[in-house]
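$ run holo --ligand "benzoic acid" --emit tokens
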Amino acid sequence: MALRLGDEAPNFTAETTQGPINLHEWLGNGWGILFSHPKDFTPVCTTELGTMAKIASEFQKRNVKVIAISVDPMDAHKGWIKDINETQKANVNFPMIADPERKVAMLYDMIHPNALDNMTVRSVFVIGPDKKIKLMLTYPASTGRNFDELLRVVDSLQLTAKYQVATPANWKDGEDCIIVPAVKDEEIPAKFPKGHRAVKPYLRYTPQPNK
Ligand code: BEZ
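-- output --
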């Protein structure tokens, strides 16, 4: 059955460019991002992996481990990383899973044969410290992903895991948040001492609680 938000992220042990990794053990108590790309030595993928490498420290700051995957073999990954580093002025320091037998790709439903034969599509799974899937994205081969959006989503997920808030459209870290409907009006002063403004009874904003 297809994976859904809230499902446990399927565990696996796989060969990576940094040695064998058991996903759940490797994640420990932190957050994770597992993202697939269609093929090594291809142009869009080269820019994506370089972009991720350049902002990897931002994910580290947020206690998020990053791991890439494609169905290419290990020697291809190792050769391609040199190209990524050279052309993207980057230093790929996150592991890449070599999955030529497609074990992980099948587990995470990353192969969509009607879109892309025999390759993984551009999937992203954000995994929480409880090992549950918090976010899934699927992009076609022709569209490189926006990795700043992944950082933005992580900021929202980590915030909303701690406080009874949600984040509005195009929200960025530091901006006002929405008080979730489960919070009664009379509970707001104690829960949100920075104040709030009610635009409608169901649309109540408060300054970001952890800023
Ligand atoms: C690319 O990364 O450029 C790419 C990969 C697979 C199919 C098409 C494009």
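-- notes --
Residues 38-39, 42-45, 141 surround benzoic acid (CB under 6 Å).
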